[in-house]
């Protein structure tokens, strides 16, 4: 444990996570990041109830926070919904601005490329050719393809032959935007990257074999294939299994879109075209398609399949559905979503080391530090409370709602391995 | 059966019903009305999915239409939601304007008073003292009581000692407004009333004893007390029992507010104060009370109990909840709810006699005759389709919706006692 006067030269590592759920790939990335940066304190900014792919997290944020604490993270702060359910650029700007604000001086991300210098040079090169790139993107968009596809094609043609990042890889895209956000913020955050490991790896400390499977594959086994937790023990640390078991006991099921479908269906059915058009990301007449199609489908999966077009990625449509479910308007986002200026830091959990770091930083913070949602009346925080309530709505008995207002950060003693709250 | 050229002098009786569900009291009223008016054809204007007390009907409109046809009614037309879920005055204006439009020349209603002359003289007396009465009502409202209470008190004091109608009785209130609507419309409809019979009565045609119980008492037995249909056979004709059995098989349960509660809860949770304030009948800061209370309750019953104040009747609050559920705005009602000018006549069911009457009248009708919701694109009709879809939402399997667009009127042969569609 460190004292207040030692804070200056400490390595404060920031990482950006969803932990949906926490698995061995995350553990590998966490340990490799700490090793690489020689971090003294690790801060994770974690998405709350709804995630970047436009899906509800399979477990609530508190359950996922407990996983993160047991994995060794010192401070977990919430990435607000206004950033968490967004394309890579806004998502990254929000996450990096939070890590910058809390006082991190390192940021380490997983990437397919694995070479941080390549990220930095690519950001600089793109900046230099920004207008040319934008022209190309617009050209490609006119042919009716989705934005990510247009971007990737434009990028390839503008930088053909150049030694530049492969931006068709999902983690490279995020890493690129993290490095870009650092540049835009003129932050002292130093970027690092760890090459993503897909193969299986052996953890010396543990006796049984661990396999890295993607969170997507794990969720598929749990939700679509309805496999019991025992069937996937080799992909998940024991504390993740334990936490998922608790989630199942409390909520009766893991969280997935199908259970929210009745509310989405109800919301679309009872909306006028004008009301749908006011929803964030509802563009180009999508409101009429939705109103026409909603009476013809009987599941979320069916809805996705009929709404999907070449123009929009699956993820883009799912994000729209989250915004419809939460009734998030364009004007709300215009007013409150300032990507590089997170309005507050909300603590979800901390180790004792994390708590000491926070109290040493407290007075220097330029934005409010929130430990209880009831402390501060801010529209972005209210949205996160609403997101959490809606996330829990189909699951909790007697129509009760996740108690977000009263919840306090989870405290964990890493040495003793026990929760203090 | 009558021929077209006989239509002129026929007695075309109109009645206003909810049939929630059809019981012996309704049968008594129907037979007494036909006897009194010597009706050749009986037309019932029946509320669709949501009723005057601000509740969903326990069975869908098609099921209740089949009950009405088997009871001997010739034509069932739908009272649109814009009228059906309203205070007595708008409800009555809408119903009477429909019976007037379809060509009824008699209207017979049940009442506690039982003397139609008293209704007519009371309407005239109130008209003569309208401004005095309104002043009194405003005085009473200032003390914080509900409108019906203020009206009743004002009425008593203005007409003290006069031989005037007892307007504290619910059926007298409706009858009063029917007669008033006839006067406002300058309609040729001739009013009749049948005194409501509460005691048990014996039907000569049938061998077993029949008891008149109120629809409220019957619903209470079915829903709150969860009694089987067999337990209430003596209150209901066999066709009502049969139809209710069918409803149970198709929907799994009778319709009641608790099953709609999750949608109402979701809608309030995700509404801004401004959005709630735009809802019809959301007045005087109720939006803030609702937003505050909605996170604290876990059932419709609980919600009603905490929202209820001296200022608003139970019914008034329930109606507001229907409007919130259906997302019906003040501006929608201002634009489309013209109480004395129903925009169309929608046929839900008809006997062969009814069908002949309709084809004889068809060319003289001044508003459209709708037999299929898909035929006509009108916002009031769209609202009825939505109301029907939402009515069915918590009940139908696989999130399917009541097929309102394709539905056609139910045809019934009274002589053979068989349905033709």
UniProtKB/TrEMBL annotation, chains A, B:
Give residues annotated as binding ATP.
Answer: 16-29, 110, 171, 196
Its subcellular locations are: Cytoplasm
Q: What is its main location?
A: cytoplasm
Indicate whether Cytoplasm appears among the record's keywords: yes
Q: Which SUPFAM superfamilies match?
A: Nucleotidylyl transferase
* Root EC class: ligase
Q: Where are the transmembrane segments?
A: none
Keywords of the record, alphabetical order, are: ATP-binding, Cytoplasm, Ligase, Nucleotide-binding, RNA-binding, tRNA processing, tRNA-binding
| UniProt cross-references to InterPro entries, sorted A to Z | Rossmann-like_a/b/a_fold, tRNA(Met)_cyd_acetate_ligase
Instruction: Show the catalytic activity.
Output: cytidine(34) in elongator tRNA(Met) + acetate + ATP = N(4)-acetylcytidine(34) in elongator tRNA(Met) + AMP + diphosphate
This enzyme's EC code(s): 6.3.4.-
Query: Where are the coiled-coil regions?
Result: none
Q: Does the keyword Zinc-finger apply?
A: no
- What Pfam families does the entry give? HIGH_NTase1
Task: Describe the function of this protein.
Answer: Catalyzes the formation of N(4)-acetylcytidine (ac(4)C) at the wobble position of elongator tRNA(Met), using acetate and ATP as substrates. First activates an acetate ion to form acetyladenylate (Ac-AMP) and then transfers the acetyl group to tRNA to form ac(4)C34.
Per the record, the similarity remark reads:
Belongs to the TmcAL family.
User: Which PANTHER family is this protein grouped with?
Assistant: TRNA(MET) CYTIDINE ACETATE LIGASE
The name under which this protein is listed is tRNA(Met) cytidine acetate ligase
What gene name is given for the protein in this entry? tmcAL
């Amino acid at each position: 444990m460190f004292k207040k006067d030692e804070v200056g030269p400490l390595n404060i590592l920031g990482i950006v996570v969803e932990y949906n759920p926490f698995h061995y790939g995350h553990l590998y990335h966490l340990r490799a990041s700490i090793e690489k940066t020689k971090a003294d304190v690790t801060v994770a900014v974690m998405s709350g109830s709804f995630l970047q792919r436009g899906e509800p997290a399979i477990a609530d944020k508190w359950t996922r926070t407990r996983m993160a604490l047991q994995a060794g993270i010192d401070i977990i702060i919430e990435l607000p919904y206004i950033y968490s359910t967004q394309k890579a650029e806004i998502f990254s700007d929000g996450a990096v601005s939070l890590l910058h604000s809390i006082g991190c001086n390192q940021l380490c991300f997983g990437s397919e490329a694995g070479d941080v210098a390549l990220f930095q040079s690519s950001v600089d090169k793109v900046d230099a050719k920004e207008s040319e790139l934008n022209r190309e993107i617009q050209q490609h968009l006119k042919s009716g393809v989705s934005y990510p596809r247009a971007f990737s094609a434009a990028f390839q043609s503008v930088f053909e032959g150049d030694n530049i990042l492969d931006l068709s890889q999902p983690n490279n895209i995020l890493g690129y935007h993290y490095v870009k956000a650092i540049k835009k913020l003129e932050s002292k955050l130093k970027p690092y990257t760890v090459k993503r490991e897909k193969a299986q790896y052996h953890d010396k400390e543990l006796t049984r074999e661990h396999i890295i499977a993607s969170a997507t594959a794990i969720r598929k086994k749990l939700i679509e294939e309805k496999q019991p937790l025992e069937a996937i023990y080799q992909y998940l640390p024991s504390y993740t299994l334990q936490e998922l078991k608790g989630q199942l006991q409390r909520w009766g099921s893991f969280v997935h879109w199908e259970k929210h479908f009745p509310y989405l269906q109800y919301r679309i059915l009872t909306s006028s075209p004008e009301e749908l058009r006011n929803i964030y990301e509802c563009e180009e007449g999508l409101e009429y398609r939705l109103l026409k199609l909603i009476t013809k489908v009987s599941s979320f999966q069916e809805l996705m399949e009929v709404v999907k077009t070449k123009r929009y990625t699956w993820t883009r449509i799912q994000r729209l559905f989250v915004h419809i479910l939460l009734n998030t308007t364009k004007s709300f986002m215009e007013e409150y979503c300032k990507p590089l200026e997170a309005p507050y830091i909300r603590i979800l959990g901390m180790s004792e080391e994390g708590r000491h770091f926070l109290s040493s930083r407290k007075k220097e913070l330029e934005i409010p530090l929130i430990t209880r949602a009831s402390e501060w009346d801010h529209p972005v925080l209210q949205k996160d409370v609403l997101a959490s309530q809606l996330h829990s709505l189909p699951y909790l008995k007697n129509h009760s709602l996740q108690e977000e207002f009263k919840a306090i950060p989870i405290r964990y003693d890493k040495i003793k391995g026990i929760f203090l709250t």
